[in-house]
Amino acid sequence: MFWQKEIETIGRKALEELKLKRLKQTVHRAYKNITFYREKFSELNIKPKDINSLKDIQKLPFTTREDLRENYPFGLLAVAREQVVRLHTSSGTTGKPKAIFFTKKDIDQAAELIARCLIMTGIKKDDVLQNMMTYGLFTGALIMHYGAEKVGVLVIPAGPGHTKRQISLMQDFKTTTLHLTPSYALYLANVMSNEGLDPQRDLFLRRAYLGAEPYSEGTRRKIEKFFSIDVYNSYGLSEMNGPGVAFECVEKNGMHLWEDNFIIEIINPETGEELPEGEKGELVLTTLCREAMPILRYRTRDITMIIPGKCKCGRTHRRISRIIGRTDDMFIIRGVNIFPQQIEQVLMGVKGVAQNYQIILESYDQMTIRVEISRDLFDGRIEHLMNLQSEITEKLRSEILVKPKVELLEPGTLPVSEGKATRVVDKRTL
Amino acid sequence: MDKLKQISIFSENKPGRLEKITKVLADEGVNILAINIASSNGFGVIKFIVDKCELAYQKLKQKGFTVSLNEVLAIEMVDKPGGLYEVAKTLSQKKVNIENAYVFILESRKRAFLIVEVQDIEKAKKLLQHVNLKFYREAEFKKKSK
Hints:
The complex is a heterodimer. Chain A is an alpha/beta fold. Chain A is 32% helix and 24% strand. Chain A has helices at residues 5-8, 12-33, 35-43, 65-70, 104-120, 139-151, 163-172, 182-194, 199-202, 217-227, 340-348, 382-400; strands at residues 84-90, 98-103, 128-131, 154-156, 177-180, 207-210, 230-237, 242-248, 255-257, 262-267, 281-287, 298-304, 306-307, 319-320, 325-326, 331-333, 336-338, 353-363, 366-373, 405-409, 424-426. In chain A, helix 8 packs parallel to helix 10 (217-227). The mean pLDDT of chain A is 92. Chain B has helices spanning 17-27, 53-62, 83-93, 121-127, 138-144; strands at 4-12, 32-40, 43-50, 66-77, 100-106, 111-117. The model of chain B has no long low-confidence stretch (mean pLDDT 87). Chain B has 5 helices and 6 strands. The interface between A and B is medium-sized, with 19 and 22 residues.
């Protein structure tokens, strides 16, 4: 099923032409209306007319998170203020937040992309979507909400938390589809299993959209199995509208990134050099349709790769792999670069491990992995736990090349946030 | 040979865990007949033989403890020198391997039981069907422990 079949299955050549046309327009508008970009262009000694091919994008300056912060609140606005209908901000744990503006058309366009995503996973008008992302300044819930309404789905704007109420809503309104973070999905599974609820017997769920945090394939399988549903990976960031930038189709093998709306580049985060398809690097995005806030070559800090080859679903927009890590999540122990997702992937592949874990960076050469054991697989034998402990240690050592200290914990010991989970505790900076 | 079940609880090795566990048992009026604690590398497994096994198991589970219930052998030992030797000799003759063992004493020094954990309880029971050992009997046990 398609929402906009023509554009979703457009031939590559026509898509490249469309991208170039829109890139030129975007560059012109950014240069004409945003002082920040005009100054950047003159530093690099370029003019909008120097952009004549898609390859020329490499001449353009990068835009970083810091640029967005420094230009807070109105610095990157490309339209008159009366044309703006919506403000979102992206959380600023360090210093100023980032302001993201939308015109009416921008909201509509973001909702169109969500509609494409939802239809791609087989959603229909009679589906019921329980939206458990945070409504408010965060884009996660509202953009999904608008897109789902566009499709005609019944949307329950539940927001996160209030887990018991979430469960009653799911039962009373026969929710078929969830939109939530992976950590909240795991939390929900835990609550349901403690309450003796069996999703297959007691609920009506068919699918869930998971986004806003990186998670592993193993976690996806655990969630799919517990709820008896299909889990689709969703990628987005507030700076690029929020959710709906890239999404999985029924093949569940990478997320189609809507190339008529964004230009994808994968770069080496240290050198800025472009990497070929199939190689992991930092995702860089350029908006092609945004009115209020065109952004050129935005450094997302997310690590992914372009999956080479065509997708069976027929969509021609290329796919990116699930987010492997964030350049700022990466930490270094004994000189080795490690992403928390590498650790998660190992843990989720070990039988006897529950969903929750924590990584403690004790010093520059020592880390502790705290793992909750699975309640169901505990058989009372201490030898089995000792084996589990050494199996985890050994598997981690071979994956990350550093031998961690592994602690086995009782389920429910670690704090579970109902929003984004804090997996890494860095004692080195405390 | 009647069934005797043992409760095992996973616990991190930190102050207050045993207190929390035993409080659940105390609140439910569960009497502990034997206890065994094994610990390793930051965690431990605490094992109990109690009078109201099913109740204790359910309550501990409800309170969020990581609990498992498994059947063990309870073999009566004569309380005199060589008592354990007799039992061990029989088990060895029948090639029953002891995974873990501990003792509980009933009626203060009149009768002692050796609690034996084995890999395969059904197989062990079969092997020990006709040996000259006294095993735990539920009826007798219920009567004697007030």
